[in-house]
C-alpha cells in the first residue's frame, strides 16, 4: 500500500472512487497521515476520532469562516452584488459564527426550537410519510419521491411556510447547496447560488411581514420585536438556514439509511440504536470545516492561523480506537459516541427533529414494501467535500 505522505495528491476525497466510497481513503489517511495537508484543497484533513472530537470543542478552530472569505475575496469592485448579498446572508448563519454572536443566535433559536415544538410535529411526519408511500409506483426514486418531499414539508410546516409553496424550495435549495457545500472559488456556482439565495430570501422576507402563527418563524419574529436581540436580517437568514439545514441533511440520512438497510437486510430498521448506527456508518456529515484562529500543534503538525481544516466525522466514526470492528454495520451497538451531528458549541440544533423524522420515515418505507430492493443501476453521489448523499435512490418497491 502506498503511504500517503504529507501533501500527497493521491488523497482526493472528490475523486470518483472516493465520492462513491470515501471510507477506504479515509481509513488510509487515519492510519498513515491523520493530520493531512492537502495541496489540492490548500486545507488540512483531520481523521482520528480523538482529534476530531477535541477540535470540535476547541475555540481555536473557528467557525467564523464566511466573513474572512468575503473580506479577502468579495469586497472588490468586480464582485457581482448579488454574490456579495448571498454571502451576507450566510454570514448571519449561527453555524458560521463564534461566540458571542453565536451564543446569542443559538439561545434565541433554542428557545423557539423546543422538544415540545418538535414532538408536536410527530403525527404530521407519520401522516406525510404514509401519503408519500401511497403514491409510489412499482419503480421509485426514494430521494426525489420520498425523502426530499417529506423532509422539506416537515421543516416548512415547523417554520410556518405554506405547504403549497414547498415545491419551490427544491430548486432554491439545490442552488444554494453549491454556495454552501464546496462552491468556494467556482464563480458559476456562486452566481447561480446567489440567485437562488436572493429568491429564497425575498420569499422569506415577504413571509415575515405580518406573519403570525403557532410556529418557529413567529417565535423568531417575537424575539426580534421584544428586546431587539434579533435583527430583521437575522430572522430571515435564520429562516433560510433552517429551511436549508433542515431538509438537505435529513434527506441524505434517510437515503443513506434505506440504502444501508437494503444492503443489510438482517439489521432491524427500528432498533433503539438504528439511527445512531446509520449516522456512524454512513452519515451525511462527511466533513465539518473550520478556520484556524491561531497556530495549533496537532498530531506533530502545525496548523497555522488562517488555514482551513476539514474535520472528518466520516473518518472518526470508523476509528478502530473507539469502535470495535468499525466497518461492520451493526444496529445493536451501544449508541452515543458517534460524531454525525458534530459536538461542542455547534452541536446540531435540529438533531431531535432529524432523529424523529428518520426513525419514522425509514421503518415506514421498509415495512410498507417488504419486497423492496435496489434497482440494478449505478448509484450517483453528490460530489462535495462536506456532505454525503445520493442524487437518487432507485428501487423496485414490489
Ligand atoms: C440527519 C440530519 C442532520 C445532520 C447529519 C446534521 C448535521 C449537523 C452538523 C454536523 C452540525 C454541526 C456543524 C458545525 O459544527 O459546524 C449541525 C449544525 C446545525 N444543524 Fe444540523 N443536521 C441535521 C439535521 C438538521 C435539522 C433537521 C435542522 C433544523 C431544522 C438542523 C439545524 C442545524 C442548525 C441550526 C445547526 C447550527 C447549530 C450551531 O451553529 O450552533 N440540522 N448539523
From TrEMBL:
Pfam families, sorted: p450
Alphabetized SUPFAM superfamilies for the sequence: Cytochrome P450
CDD domains: CYP164-like
Key words, A-Z: Heme, Iron, Metal-binding, Monooxygenase, Oxidoreductase
Top-level taxonomic group: Bacteria
Gene3D superfamilies (UniProt xref): Cytochrome P450
Molecular function per GO: heme binding; iron ion binding; monooxygenase activity; oxidoreductase activity, acting on paired donors, with incorporation or reduction of molecular oxygen
Family the entry assigns: Belongs to the cytochrome P450 family.
Protein name as it appears in the record: Cytochrome P450
Species assigned in the record: Pseudonocardia oroxyli
Amino acid at each position: 500500500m502506498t503511504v500517503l505522505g504529507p501533501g500527497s495528491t493521491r488523497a482526493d476525497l472528490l475523486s470518483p472512487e472516493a465520492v462513491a466510497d470515501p471510507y477506504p481513503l479515509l481509513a488510509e489517511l487515519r492510519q498513515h497521515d491523520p493530520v493531512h495537508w492537502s495541496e489540492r484543497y490548500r486545507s488540512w484533513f483531520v481523521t482520528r476520532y480523538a482529534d476530531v472530537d477535541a477540535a470540535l470543542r476547541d475555540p481555536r478552530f473557528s467557525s467564523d469562516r464566511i466573513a474572512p472569505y468575503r473580506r479577502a475575496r468579495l469586497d472588490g469592485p468586480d464582485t457581482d452584488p448579488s454574490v456579495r448579498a448571498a454571502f451576507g446572508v450566510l454570514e448571519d448563519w449561527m453555524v458560521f459564527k463564534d461566540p458571542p454572536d453565536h451564543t446569542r443566535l443559538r439561545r434565541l433559536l433554542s428557545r423557539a426550537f423546543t422538544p415540545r415544538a418538535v414532538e408536536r410535529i410527530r403525527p404530521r411526519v407519520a401522516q406525510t410519510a404514509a401519503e408519500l408511500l401511497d403514491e409510489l409506483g412499482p419503480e421509485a426514486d426514494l430521494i426525489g419521491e420520498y425523502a426530499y418531499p417529506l423532509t422539506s414539508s416537515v421543516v416548512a410546516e415547523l417554520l410556518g411556510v405554506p405547504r403549497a409553496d414547498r415545491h419551490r424550495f427544491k430548486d432554491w435549495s439545490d442552488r444554494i447547496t453549491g454556495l454552501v457545500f464546496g462552491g468556494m472559488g467556482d464563480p458559476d456556482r456562486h452566481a447561480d447560488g446567489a440567485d437562488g439565495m436572493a429568491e429564497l430570501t425575498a420569499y422569506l422576507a415577504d413571509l415575515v411581514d405580518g406573519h403570525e402563527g403557532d410556529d418557529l418563524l413567529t417565535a423568531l419574529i417575537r424575539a426580534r420585536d421584544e428586546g431587539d436581540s434579533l435583527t430583521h436580517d437575522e430572522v430571515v437568514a435564520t429562516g433560510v438556514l433552517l429551511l436549508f439545514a433542515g431538509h438537505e441533511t435529513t434527506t441524505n440520512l434517510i437515503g443513506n439509511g434505506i440504502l444501508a438497510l437494503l444492503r443489510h437486510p438482517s439489521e432491524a430498521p427500528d432498533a433503539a440504536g438504528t439511527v445512531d448506527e446509520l449516522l456512524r456508518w454512513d452519515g451525511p456529515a462527511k466533513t465539518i470545516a473550520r478556520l484556524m484562529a491561531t497556530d495549533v500543534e496537532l498530531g506533530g503538525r502545525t496548523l497555522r492561523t488562517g488555514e482551513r481544516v476539514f474535520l472528518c466525522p466520516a473518518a472518526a466514526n470508523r476509528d478502530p480506537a473507539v469502535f470495535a470492528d468499525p466497518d461492520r454495520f451493526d444496529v445493536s451497538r451501544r449508541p452515543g459516541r458517534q460524531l454525525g451531528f458534530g459536538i461542542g458549541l455547534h452541536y446540531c440544533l435540529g438533531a431531535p427533529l432529524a432523529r424523529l423524522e428518520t426513525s419514522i420515515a425509514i421503518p415506514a418505507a421498509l415495512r410498507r414494501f417488504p419486497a423492496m430492493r435496489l434497482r440494478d443501476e449505478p448509484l450517483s453521489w453528490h460530489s462535495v467535500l462536506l456532505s454525503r448523499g445520493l442524487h437518487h435512490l432507485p428501487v423496485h418497491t414490489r
